[in-house]
Amino acid sequence: MDKEKLLSELQFKAVRSSGAGGQNVNKVSSKVVLQFDLKTSSAFSEEEKELLLSKLDNKLTKEQVLLLNCDEGRSQLRNKEIVIKRFLLIIEGALKVAKSRKPTKIPRSVIEKRLKEKRSQSDIKQSRQKPKF
């Protein structure tokens, strides 16, 4: 993954934000919307694109566009930095391949402990019964 190439493919749009800022909100477009078209991206190989499509399926639009927005800060520049960091974290997390789980063998001591506990529980219940004559 080439970060420079990836960042050059991002599209940004500034829109009016809600939230903190008072009257500044009504005048300034501080909310930043990031758009990334996965289908036309040349920053990823075909295998990486398939991996991203499967992992980010619920975050993509029908046209395979990833949309992220940020209106946390009052500054457009700050919001742009935040949304870029968030985008890179999402992409890096989606590209990680999970290790396959190897089922572990149950240790002998654990099996013996369980059987011993069963025997002791059985003895306790046997001792509660009425004696047989």
Automatic annotation (TrEMBL):
Alphabetized GO MF terms? peptidyl-tRNA hydrolase activity; ribosome binding; translation release factor activity
Signal peptide range equals none
Q: Where are the transmembrane segments?
A: none
Q: Where is the composition biased (Basic and acidic residues)?
A: 110-126
Taken from the record, one Pfam family name reads RF-1
GO terms, biological process: rescue of stalled ribosome
| Region feature (Disordered) | 108-133
Q: In terms of domain of life, where is this protein from?
A: Bacteria
For this protein, the record's SUPFAM superfamilies field holds: Peptidyl-tRNA hydrolase domain-like
Record-annotated Prokaryotic-type class I peptide chain release factors domain positions: 16-32
Q: Which NCBIfam families match?
A: PRK09256.1
PANTHER family for the chain: PEPTIDYL-TRNA HYDROLASE ARFB (PTHR47814)
What is the protein name for this chain? Ribosome-associated protein
- List the taxonomic lineage: Bacteria, Pseudomonadati, Bacteroidota, Flavobacteriia, Flavobacteriales
